[in-house]
Amino acid sequence: MVQEQQQLNSLMPKAFGHYSVYLGLNAKLSASLTSPIKNAIALTSHRHLGGHAVMDPHQLPLATETIDLLVLQHVLDMSDNPHQILREAARVINSGGRLVITGLNPYSFWGLWRRLRLKRGVPWRANFLAQHRLKDWLTLLSFGDFDIKPVYDCSPAKWKTRPWLSCLAIPLGAGYVLSAVKQETRVHLLKANWRNRVVNPSFGLAGATRQTSQKE
Q: Cα dist. 91→47, 60, 66, 214 in Å?
């Protein structure tokens, strides 16, 4: 989708680092976008998608905390286990690195058609994950600084000829591009004051007690 690529292109100046990885649909096309990150690779789950390599998004062949930008293009939409993909994303992204997700909006006309089963095939069999659900999941994985852009490509063509319907484009847009930054986690070491915490060993022996004689 043209507008989806335009939204991705607008996010590229915000990405910094050494390595970027693009997964899913149009991954090879997105990897060619102008970005401050020069080392880019496109990974896909099928050869016919034209990536640089084939992989399983549920088990990424990437080292932990080595990626500065990870783009998931409709990967969650086509997965039966999107939670695992997000866990893998959180594993490979550096602290301060950026995660970008493109998805389909369940609260759109496309989402309505999917729910009514008016159409079949792709993308109607996709997950259509809501944006607020993604934000909740990502927050648990230490992501923040969210930025969500709507994609209007899938809105009805008649909206272009009827401006009064354009007010519905943003909330009912068929797609979205979500960006989030992995927050830095810091470990604070607590120094114990051993001098003030000297504990005398106790061996569990009862002390001797003096019995009082009746003659006294």
A: 25, 9, 9, 77
| CATH code for the domain in which residue 169 is found | 3.40.50.150
For residue range 160-190, what is the model confidence (pLDDT) as tens digits?
Answer: 555 545 555 555 677 889 999 999 765 455 5
52 Cβ contact partners less than 8 Å away, ≥ 6 residues apart: 28, 31, 41, 42, 43
pTM over 0.70? The answer is yes
Domain count, the chain: 1
* CA separation, residue 33 to residues 1, 11, 197 (Å): 14, 10, 60
**Distance between alpha carbon 42 and the CA centroid of its chain, in Å?**
17
Q: Helix, strand, coil proportions of the chain in percent (round to 5)?
A: 30, 25, 45
Residue 201 lies in a domain: no
Instruction: Give the residue from 181, 78, 107 showing the smallest Cα distance to 138.
Output: 181
Alpha-carbon span 130 to 30, nearest angstrom: 23
Range of the domain at 79: 2-185
Domain membership flag for residue 133: yes
